[in-house]
Amino acid sequence: MANLNDLLARAQKYATDYLEQAQKGSVVPSTDAVTALAGFEEAVPDTGFSAEDTLDLMHRLGSPATFATTGGRYFGFVTGGTLPGTLAANWLSTAWDNNSALQAQSPATSAIESVASRWIVDLFGLPSDCAVGFVTGATAANLSGLAAARSHILNRMNWDVEARGLFGAPEIKVVVSDEVHVSVLKAISILGLGRERIVRVPTDDQGRMRADSLPELNPSTIVCIQAGNVNTGSFDPANEVIRAARKAGAWVHVDGAFGLWAFVSPQYQELVRAFLEADSFATDGHKMLNVPYDSGIVIVRNRESLTRSFSATAAYLKNSASDMSNFTPEFSRRARGIEIWAAIRTLGRVGLARLVERNCDFAKRIPAEVAHHGLSTPHNVVFNQVMLVAKTDEETDRILRAVQNSGVCWFGGTVWHGKHAMRISFSSWNTSEDDFASTIRAIRLACS
Ligand SMILES: Cc1ncc(COP(=O)(O)O)c(C=O)c1O
């Protein structure tokens, strides 16, 4: 049996070595390292190896085959790093291993998660009685917010969707933009709202929903708007959309996986002010807030609509109204709200604003840095996302491949309004001026 102190010290040593390497080494794993992952392909052991041996194998084969997403030069998808305080909080709460479903089962995690809930709505400027659930990511948060919307609309029509399902239920109309994030479509399909039955609203040249093209809305409509387009970072015209929805008695859901964090910055708050009037919100902790995976947050103004969707009781559970399981699809789950609490507690309002502003500032500087190298940006840079295109799709793809192969930094590609584009997402607390400078050098070199 391993000595626990030695084992955890070993894990700590591997973790700190890894983080140091992620900071200075290649962002991309080598082909050899990925090939060596075959070393994990063992048969189920009969008697089991030691914990040290297992950790050694994980570090020896696994660590070199990771993308260094916790370092400062990874700009793929929308990926946050891990703030030190959140990593440490994650370790301690894993040691607690308390199940955050029920208050009776875990007073400590429930207390901390309820502070985190209060802080989130405070930071966003929402009413203090909003319901908050800590889920796995923005996809699950979209699912949860839309479940609340479905419940609210049908409940108003005296249809108990939780009891009767959607068989024979009144129709719900779901309105999204042409550039809706795929996770919203996934949520819509899981909830039985029919991915092919939705109404799509065209977008403008920045990827924003065109409010002048909204269909007729009614009290059984859910309108999904976006705070932060995954390619351009643009924000839908919440003011106009929410005004129209209010008039019609429709529900407005906001997918703000990373964009809702504009709330914490005096400089960027204006982008999201109008979204405040929406009914439900989905965001991520593991993007702009830089907590470890997996971490998403759902916020719903009408508390009952979320708890009606997710509450379930059983005599042996001894449920209470404040149990976190009333706000999430799961019962048992890890206390992921603790890392959110740790992030906010260690950064404070000033640090949070700085985190968002630094990332947006990097994004805004990109177009000018590469303009003389044949690259342009096909949108206004308003937040943390920036795309680059070369003269032809082939040239864009070639430059992207060269950057990715350099190992200096990593970002992915997309197709934006018919043209191939590179998309760079600044979302890490860890990106320094040096990281930015080497990224620019890598892009320029790839262009030459
Ligand atoms: C706008 C938007 N919505 C939803 C998601 C899904 O988030 P997650 O993968 O955390 O579930 C993303 C992820 O990039 C996103 O950018």
Task: Summarize the structure in words.
- The chain is of the alpha/beta class and 448 residues long.
- The protein has a domain of 256 residues: Type I PLP-dependent aspartate aminotransferase-like (Major domain) (Aspartate Aminotransferase, domain 2).
- It has 13 helices and 10 strands.
- The strands form 2 sheets. The protein has a 7-stranded mixed beta sheet, sandwiched between helices. A 3-stranded antiparallel beta sheet has the order 8-10-9.
- β2, α8 and β3 form a beta-alpha-beta unit.
- α1 packs parallel to α3, α6 crosses α8 and α6 crosses α10.
- The protein is globular, with a radius of gyration of 23 Å.
- The structure holds pyridoxal-5'-phosphate.
- The site of pyridoxal-5'-phosphate (PLP) has 14 residues, from α6.
- Helix count equals 13
Total strands: the figure is: 10
As laid out across the biggest beta sheet, the strand order is 1-7-6-5-4-2-3
Order of helices and strands: HHHHHEHHEHEEHEEEHHEHEEH
Describe what is shown at a glance.
By secondary structure, the protein is of the alpha/beta class.
Supply database-style keywords:
Aspartate Aminotransferase, domain 2, 448 residues, binds pyridoxal-5'-phosphate
Record the SSE blueprint.
Layout (H helix, E strand, L loop, with lengths): L3 H21 L6 H5 L15 H12 L21 H13 L10 H18 L6 E5 L2 H19 L4 H4 L8 E5 L4 H9 L8 E3 L19 E6 L11 H11 L2 E5 L24 E5 L11 E5 L2 H8 L26 H34 L14 E4 L4 H14 L5 E5 L2 E7 L7 H15 L1
Parallel strand pairs: 2-3, 2-4, 4-5, 5-6
Antiparallel strand pairs: 1-7, 6-7, 8-10, 9-10
Helix pairs in contact: 1-3, 4-11, 5-11, 6-8, 6-10, 11-13, 12-13
The protein binds pyridoxal-5'-phosphate (PLP).
Pyridoxal-5'-phosphate (PLP) binds next to helix 6.
